[in-house]
Design goal:
It contains 20 helices and nine strands. By secondary structure, it is of the alpha/beta class. Strand 8 and strand 9 form a beta hairpin. The protein is globular.
Length: 524
């Protein structure tokens, strides 16, 4: 075979492939579904690991939808058109303009086009070729958007995730610093807030913790009223206006992700702990913007994460599940909380060759309310689930009772888990334990401006510091918790940040306003 004939044969093979696959196989419904997920991913700023399952589902769903539609109309091209329009309708569910365009196209494809002279010249295979190219151009456009947003470097840095928990064959050296457990009770109210706002009595919970060696910081308050802001500050051991990477964005409407997530994962506290030989272990909270996926040990039980919840809300699936009364979201959130307690036990009983810093994020009693009295499930919906809705007066009493009962149920689980953790601790290795909430409950039930501030910023804080009683002032703020502990146990001399509190303005997390402490005298 001559070089010319070989070249001609290769060209014919490429042409045949293009005709059979690029032009004849209607793959554009799959590309449309992938483009929808990728675009939402870019807007979220989360780790690529958090979107892999969604991409897999999108590909499988669109491919199955195309195959079923083709089988029903006995034509792969018309079936793909129907599937592509259904994907477009789903993607535009909460976007009226896109939904209207999809409806017009659906009407044109199914009703108008077959009855016009265009149906003779514009064949269905031609429609497939056009839409395949258009969908590919859409995917290229998203790629350009990735480059323009500077997301390539961020995604490359994110291609790392902690390993599963594995028991070490050697033991921690006798002179090693103590294990540290930080347990975040997301949105847990401070003791006095439980009494004033919810009519509860925290004394039994606080007495049980005191018996386990905890100091209750009775007038603790958070520096910020959102989880991502608080954790960035707590783990970097500085206020946000003291963090170079964040300072330039304060006062703007810039996106908070992936900036805050990167600050959290590469924070000063974690760097210091690694320098001192600590193993960093964490559990997946489902809130991707604050997840420590780059810890040494990363434990995930596989429930829906926040990105997947947002994706479901953006399609008719969430609306349909809510109308059918299927509590998928509530079941997933309850399951994740229960698995977090199981992971806490696994961390306690699994030997490590290094001292361990464990961060366990319990996503309750943060909205939505998922546990009621005695742990009774409380149904929730996909309708803006991560904010407590405004409630008419006749519903508030029932909500307060359920909320109070849910907090009491959670507190009982926490006490049992601490008992288990202490009983499982190796001899001579009494652990440090920090129980804290990142902000107050934010239910909106406070009355005056001062009471509203208090409910948002008065957070729960209890610290078990073996051999170091009364380390914290009664009005300590979260930003100085780790510096205080590190100075006491690791021999550091870390600076302290001012005890200031800030509230966000509107939906933009970087628009912050400094406010008086939640226990300050009421404004005149």
């Amino acid at each position: 075979m001559t070089a010319t004939s070989a070249h001609r044969e290769r060209a014919e093979i490429r042409l045949a492939f293009r005709e059979s696959v690029v032009h004849s196989v209607p793959w554009y419904p799959v590309v449309l579904a992938v483009a929808f997920v990728l675009n939402l991913f870019l807007e979220s700023g989360i780790s690529p690991f958090a979107v892999l399952r969604s991409l897999t589902v999108a590909v499988g769903f669109a491919a199955l939808l195309t195959a079923v539609s083709a089988g029903m109309v006995r034509d792969r091209h018309r079936g793909a058109a129907i599937a592509g329009l259904i994907v477009l309708v789903m993607a535009g569910w909460r976007q009226p303009i896109l939904l209207g365009v999809a409806a017009v196209l659906l009407l044109a494809v199914l009703v108008i086009l077959p009855r016009t002279r265009w149906s003779m010249s514009l064949t269905w295979p031609a429609v497939t070729r056009i839409l395949n190219v258009v969908s590919l151009m859409l995917l290229v456009g998203i790629g350009v958007k990735v480059v323009q947003a500077g997301a390539v470097g961020t995604m490359a840095a994110d291609i790392h995730q902690g390993r599963p928990l594995v028991a070490a064959t050697s033991r921690v050296p006798p002179n090693a610093p103590p294990d540290i457990y930080m347990i975040l009770l997301d949105g847990h109210p401070r003791g006095d807030t439980i009494g004033k706002v919810f009519g509860g009595d925290p004394s039994a919970f606080e007495a049980a913790l005191a018996a386990q060696g905890f100091d209750i910081i009775e007038r603790s308050y958070a520096n910020y009223n959102f989880t991502a802001l608080t954790l960035a500050s707590v783990l970097d051991m500085r206020l946000l206006d003291e963090i170079d990477a964040v300072r330039l964005h304060l006062g703007t409407q810039d996106r908070d992700q992936p900036l805050l997530r990167n600050v959290i994962n590469h924070s000063a506290a974690l760097a210091l702990l690694r320098e001192r030989g600590y193993e960093i272990a964490t559990t997946a909270s489902g809130f991707e913007g604050v997840t420590l996926r780059q810890a040494d040990v990363y434990l995930d039980s596989g429930e829906l994460n926040e990105f997947e919840t947002t994706l479901i809300r953006a399609t008719p699936i969430g609306w349909l599940l809510d109308r059918l009364g299927v509590d998928v979201l509530g079941d997933q959130l309850r399951s994740r909380v229960r698995h977090a307690f199981e992971f806490l036990h696994q961390l306690a009983v699994t030997p490590s060759s290094r001292p361990r810093f464990a961060f366990v994020h319990l996503t309750t009693p943060h909205a939505p309310l998922i546990f009621g009295t005695d742990g009774k499930p409380v149904a929730t919906t996909f309708d803006d689930p991560f904010a407590f809705p405004d409630r008419p007066a006749h519903e508030r009493a029932a909500f307060i009772e359920a909320y109070r009962g849910g907090v009491e149920y959670l507190d009982g689980l926490v006490v049992d888990a601490i008992d288990d953790l202490l009983a499982s601790a190796p001899p001579g290795r009494d652990p440090i334990i920090v129980l804290f909430s990142d902000h107050g409950p934010r239910t909106g039930l406070g009355g005056s401006a001062q009471e509203q501030r208090t409910e948002q910023l008065a957070n729960f804080l209890a610290v078990r510091a073996p051999g170091r009683a009364n380390l914290f002032e009664e009005d300590a703020t979260l930003v100085n918790v780790l510096p205080t502990l590190f100075d006491a146990y690791l021999g550091t001399q870390l600076p302290r940040s001012p005890d200031r509190s800030h509230l966000t303005r509107g939906d933009h997390l970087f628009e912050l306003a400094e406010v008086p402490g939640p226990d300050a005298d009421p404004e005149p």
